[in-house]
Amino acid sequence: MRIAHLTTTATLFLLLGMYASGQEKKQLSSDFFERRIRPILVDKCYECHSEAAGERQGGLLLDRQSGWLEGGDSNRAVVPNEPETSLLLKAVRYEDAELKMPPEEKLPKEQIAYIEQWIRGGAPGPVVDLGDSEFSRLGDQPYLFEKSKSHWAFQPVVKSNPPSTDFKGWNKNPIDRFVAASLKANGLAPSPTADPRTLARRLFYDLTGMPPSMLQVDAFAKDFQIDPTMAIEKLVDAIVDSNEFGHHIARMWLDVARYADTDSFYRPDTRTPHYFPFAFTYRDYVIEAFNNDKPYDQFLKEQIAADLIGFDETSPEIAALGFFAVGPHANQAKDESLDDWIDVSMRGLMGITVACARCHDHKYEPIPTADYYALRGVFASVNRIDPLDEKRLPELAGYSPSADAIADYEAKRQAIDKKIKDASGKKAGGNNLSIPEKIKETELAELLLFHPGAPSRAMIVTEKPKPAKAFVFVRGDAAVQGDLVTRKFLKILDPTQAEFPEDTSGRKELAEKIVDPDNPLTARVMVNRVWGHLIGSYLVATPSDFGLQGSAPTHPELLDWLAADFVEHGWSIKQLVRKIVLSRVYQQRSLHIDTMAAFDPQNLNLWKANRKRLTIEELRDSVLAVSNEIDLTPRGRSAELWGEGYTHRRAIYGYINRFNLDPTLRAFDFPSPMQTQPKRDESIVALQSLFTLNSPFVIDQAAAFVSLAEFRKCETNSERVNIVFSGIFQREPHANELTRVLRFVEQQEEFASKTPQTTRFRNAPWELVVQSLLMSNEFQYVD
Amino acid sequence: MSINEEHPESSPVVSRRALLQSTTLGTLALAGMFAEHRNAFGEEKGVGESPLSEKAPHFQAKAKRIIHLFMNGGPSQMDTFDPKPKLNELDGKPLPDSILEQLQPTQRNRAGNIFGSPFKFSNHGQSGLPVSELFPHVAKHVDDLCVIRSMQGEIANHTPGLLLTNCGHSTLARPSLGSWLLYGLGNESDELPGFVVLCPNGTPTAQSRNWTSDFLPGIYQGTHIDSESSSKQLVANLTRDDIRSGTQRAQVALTQFLNRRHSQLRSGDERLESQIHSMELAFRMQRAGTDAFDLSQEPASIRELYGDSIPGKNLLIARRLAERGVRYIQCYHGSGQPWDNHGSIVSNIRRLTKDSDQPIGALLTDLKQRGMLDDTLVIWGGEMGRTPTIQQVKDISKAGRDHHIDGYTVWLAGGGFRGGMAYGSTDELAMTVAEKPVLLADFHATILHQMGFDHKRLTYRYAGRDFRLTDVQGRVIHDLLA
User: Fold this and answer.
1) Is residue A96 part of a domain?
2) Are A171 and A155 in contact, with CB atoms under 8 Å apart?
């Protein structure tokens, strides 16, 4: 390409000599451009302003007419027939100290004269004009803004009337009517309603993350026979109002909020993570917010700016600020943690990928770099309090450890404090690190993190005394400061971009912009998350990307209807959840139907329910639930999920080491808490089966099942099989299952009778049977 | 895919599975195992129909397995295998304008002054290929190395580079090379996953997307093992020692009985079948995995050869897995992107090569002495290379190199690749590929060729279209082959 250009240039210079110069015509032709102007541009300008060079500095392209007519970041480069108002001429004349082009040296006079003549003559374009190309549009913010005008996600939410349908029973709930319309349009038909046992299991799992008991299933089935609709409503009301609801749906939020109990980096000498001993109070805040059905707009406002909307350090709501404070931090430069805060609040809350605009205007979304730095200005004005700073992290009321726990904590604390004091001023031999610091960051932090008697504090952020001045960092490099930017919201959502007040970070205003009912993204993004959580597939397949590059909604009217209805009902999550699970769409059978699958193999039209696989949290909680060993105590500190002395509390209370994510969690696709996570992957690997086969946790709980009173009072093996099936699968065994299990038990017993009792091997057949069921697909999938 | 239809019974390799089936059924223990195997999930669907059963490739394969040594982060080509004396000559000077304008925009903006390699190169072996002083052990094997100096990436960053190198596309989710191989060849081992990813202390950048099966069935996904796990077992919950293996086999059979009945009532859900296979594999993996990861079974001389270090253990495990029929073993240098030397490249690259040179040399020696190098393909390289210019300018002692995709180096050894040769070249300033550019699609096509596949015919129908690893690109580079 380069060589070609040079050859052309040389030829054209030769040609130039053959033409008399200075002949002015009123309007010039493309010929003039090709002969007189192009050679100059090729030689001096295309390096930075042409598609061939892959370069478009200052947003200006000079290889096509539209390039100079639209101009770059500074303005139009050329105004045809008006040389004196054309920036290009100004630049080549070196008139403006800020705008001298080409930067290396001024063009020879003759060339400047040609340019002047060319502009005066109408600035004709090339013979073959490139016109618009993918390249010229990359990062072309005016073009992207124009394109965004018709992008669905930036349109106001419109609550349209749901179309009616002739599918029987599908005309009541608007959700059903929207889905029915798309089924019909695609020549598909819905599946029948699932049987009561399936429904009960589905509802319990989707709303609490745990299975129902057999008694609950039976009671529901009885109600269902009398009046299915009433029965479902009654059950849903009861479950949604149970404490377990918040414990389940909060986990969805913690994926978005990249929750963890440690930082992303470790102390090199001890190889222990930097702990966040008080992250748990943020988790408790989230669980309670869902359980109390805190309006979602309020929920967001508190997480972004609790301290600025009337909550002081004595309010429980102050813990909401953990949304920022629990993010990854220590191994990163400050810029990186600000980047995380921008990312979690933009992608996490609004499905827009602002963080890409850090080094340049967004290439694919209507996000100029200035917008990134406007938000950066907000977060740079925020102080993150050291996670171990007990003086500045406020203690929260409402945690009342037992006197014993407090006493034990105090004793241990005193011992550690003494150790710290004794080591005062000492440094370690090899690495010269402070010993008191080391004790504080390891022993003391671990005590604070795990000990039930330790004080409970909020992990907060605070305002800086003076808001930071924000500059654009040219190409993301903090060393190269560009323009000063004021703190304000995204241009695409707030075209006037009113500046945030000068005397605060602007978090409060940011929060208000995010939850403004006219913001087209926030409600849509959240209803899509809740929908995906309950339905098992999303209306928008990219839950954290609603931009030009994201997926289009499968059911746009339905998405809008849900979003509008959500806001109308006071941003109530419980109301939204009820509406979805009370739909026929949700209650369909999950069975495969060849004729439907032939047209819609991915079930995009929702002609059946999606069979869901348990997450690791659901699997763990279910094992503890069926063995009746689960501890449903709410609130409190994180605890180890496996290993010696593992907790029996719900998995959401598990200790999450961000620096070294637990291998079992990792094997089951637990999302990395390094950044906000749109949704969970689903994989099937042998390591997962090894967990149900061999983990001491599953083995213990199988043994616990066998020691349940209900099991022990059984007199016959058949009764035992019944108890095992109803306890774990919430159904009775089929005849061949019964026979098969009895045969297994007999064989094991026979084998045991022939084996001396003194071996290390367990022979108890029933524990193995119970575990067999816990290992099964039926236990791990919800129809 | 039509592998089976086209080549129904032409398996060129006598697999372990085939051997067992044909010769050892008389042996009581093994017969018992297979009886259980069938009992567990073979009654209706024969063992041969498992998605993991061995399948013949399109044609006779030169390589049966791959050990991919992934220097994640992007190793510097001009400090390792692509000497550039001109850079030393011009060290500290700015790049000539004529070069600058040929750069990718992102590189040009950041290009610092020329940075000659501080490391000495010398010629080795009969081929006389130059290798830098950083790789004394690898240099001894230079006559087995096929060095490609003209790799070209697409986007100069880690995630796109990793995804392109592993899955053939910089941005979209696609199945990884290892998954395609498992899909095409099945699993040679009954007892271990066919695609294992070893990464000490966590995961590389882009995490499991590097070994995803994406739209291929989940059973072809890579199994990630943290090979620096401090616990006794590298694989969590690999075994339990409180019941007999026979008891557990009976227990698994009971579960699979329940699973089979469960999935019969729920046709059309491939995940349920995958789970059944996964359980079988897990059961067999207990013994084989314990054995494969138990380095104490190796003689002291071999352990010394590899060295008592994390990378040493990593590669020794890789060899043990290769011996046991694992098709594709990917060994990352470490979690994150350790070779991403934006700063202090001199000290960092010394450390990185000090860690990895001896084990890599040992692996090549060891494979060769076992006669395994002929049909084992060893790949060394990262997701990109580094710039010939300096990045960190404030303090010259902390100088680093930036990302570079136009001309970086990878090498291959064994598996029918031609040793002792360098293919392609970069210009004298290492800025761009001077001749014979190699795209990742070409690289993949050539690897698939050595594994017995026509890359254009290894396809999978998804969402109404036949997909392949190389998409619409890729050519087999026969010059690389012996």
Assistant:
1) yes
2) no
Residue at token pair 């003039």: A32
Residue B239: CB atoms within 10 A of its CB come to 16
In this prediction, residue A660 carries a pLDDT of 76
The answer, for B351 touching chain A at a CB cutoff of 8 Å, is: no
What's the count of helices (H) and strands (E) in chain B, helices before strands?
15, 17
Q: β-pairing, B195-198 with A781-782? A: unpaired
Q: Which of A415, A439, A454 is at the close of a domain? A: A454
* Domain membership flag for residue A513: no
Based on the structure, what is the number of domains in chain A?
3
pLDDT surpasses 90 at A764: no
A527-534: average pLDDT: 98
Give the pLDDT of residue A142.
82
Kind of pairing between the strands at A382-384 and A273-275: unpaired
Chain A nearest C-alpha distance from B373 (Å):
29
Query: Are the beta carbons of B239 and A740 separated by less than 8 Å?
Result: no
Confidence band (pLDDT; 50, 70, 90) for A74?
Answer: low
Q: Which of A77, A111, A138 is the last residue of a domain?
A: A138
Query: What is the token pair recorded at A178?
Result: 């929207």
In a domain, A591, yes or no: no
Give residue A594's pLDDT band: very low, low, confident or very high (50, 70, 90): very high
Strands B121-124 and B129-132: antiparallel
pLDDT band at residue B244 using 50, 70 and 90 as cut-offs: confident
B-contacting residues in A 749-768 (Cβ below 8 Å): 751, 760-763, 768
- Separation in Å, CA of A135 to nearest CA in chain B: 13
A691 in contact with B, Cβ within 8 Å: yes
Judged by DSSP in three states, A94 sits in: coil
The secondary structure of A433-464 as a DSSP string is: -BHHHHHIIIIIHHHHHH-TTS--B---EEE-
The alpha-carbon gap from A418 to the nearest alpha carbon of chain B, in Å, equals 31
A750: containing domain: 694-782
Summarised one tens digit per residue, pLDDT across range A109-143 is 888 988 998 999 888 888 777 766 666 666 678 88
pLDDT tens digits, one per residue of A369-387: 889 999 999 999 999 999 9
* Least confident segment among A79-83, A584-588, B1-5: B1-5
Contact A521, A546 (CB under 8 A): yes
CA distance linking residue A734 with residue A749, whole number of Å: 22
Contact residues, B window 99-128, toward A, CB-based 8 Å cutoff = 101-102, 104-105, 108-110
Among B279, B293, B299, B296, smallest CA distance to B324 is for B293
Average of pLDDT values for A581-600? 95
- Residue A673, pLDDT > 90, answer no
User: Distance between CA atoms of B46 and B38, rounded to whole angstroms?
Assistant: 8
B18 and A CB contact within 8 Å:
no
Contact B235 A690 (CB under 8 A): yes
In angstroms, rounded to a whole number, what is the distance separating the alpha carbons of residues A116 and A40? Answer: 13
ipTM associated with this complex: 0.82
CA distance B444 to A346: 38
Helices (H), B224-309: 245-264, 270-293, 300-306
CA atoms lying within 13 Å on the CB side of residue A563: 31
Tokens standing for residue A276: 């966040």
Residue A507 has pLDDT above 60, yes or no: yes
Contact A288, A685 (CB under 8 A): no
- Map out the domains of chain B with their CATH numbers: 54-238+290-480 (3.40.720)
DSSP class of residue A190 equals P
pTM of the model: 0.74
Lowest mean pLDDT among B43-57, B270-284, B347-361, B435-449: B43-57
CB contact set of B45 (below 8 Å; sequence gap of 6+): none
With respect to residue A60, please indicate whether it lies within any of the assigned structural domains.
yes
